[in-house]
Amino acid sequence: MNAVMPVRRDVKFHLPAEHVGTWLQGSPHVAHLANTFSLFLPTGERFFIEAVRTYRDRVDDPELKTAVNAFIGQEAMHGREHRALNQVLVEAVPAAAGIERFVGGLLARLQKWLPRSYRLSATIALEHFTAILADGVLSDPRLLADAEPRFAAMWRWHALEETEHKAVAFDVWTAVMGRGPRAYVMRCGGLLIATVIFWGIAIPSYLRILNAEGRLFDRAGWRMAKRHWWTETRFLPNLWKPWAAYFRPNFHPWDHDNREVLHQMDGLMADAQAWS
Ligand SMILES: [Fe+2]
Ligand SMILES: [Fe+2]
Prior knowledge:
Keywords: Hydrolase, Membrane, Transmembrane, Transmembrane helix. This is Metal-dependent hydrolase. The chain is mainly α. The protein has one domain (about 25-275). About 70% of the residues lie in helices and about 0% in strands. It has 10 helices and no strands. The chain has helices spanning about 30-55, 60-90, 95-115, 115-140, 150-165, 170-175, 180-210, 220-230, 240-245, 265-275. The longest helix is centred in the last third of the chain and has 32 residues, at about 180-210. The radius of gyration is 18 Å and the shape is globular. The two termini are about 35 Å apart. One fe (ii) ion binds near residues 45, 75, 78, 158 and 162.
């Protein structure tokens, strides 16, 4: 069951457009990896909302019902703020528009073709993935250090709310699919397929943005990205272990109880209020 009740927060970050390519570490190679993920989020989050919404009537537990509504509200706010980010990204790097369109088209087709249980399986897999990314960001202050404050605040807010609601879609899944062998196979298959598709789109998209920026063969930039995302913080290699935890038959997102990171929300909301 959910250890934390998620809360929808209507915050706007008013991102400064001129920093979109350099907001993290002053480096396009570092910033554009996060920007690439942002391109997937508005359509991805709409897909998650729809997947969970189709099962809302099957949830009997009133607490889970409340959490589902908060989940939908949070993902809708994330979508709005990431659309604002993506708009300034597309203005700076027009090639990003093609990536956004491609992902939107793919998800629209999956929305139409996949049975709803498969869509929920993909949703809980990607929610697991975002929860791991969020935990990495929130537990190592170096990841958002040396960043433009509004961009950093937006990503921190998103990571905090992903942590708050990390078990909601999963609990809906368990409520409607149970914990039998069929549910287990569908859940694990969902993570394997979602991971392959995610990186299969994310890596070429990231390279395409860097190419459009004329940075594909900038060795100093690559060294910086490697240091930031790989060697110094271990952010990317550290994803592996929590990713694999999902395959435990009795896995639950709150097995990893990281609710202590949520105290970061207070200072963040004070900053956001001062900006709006
Ligand atoms: Fe989100
Ligand atoms: Fe989420």
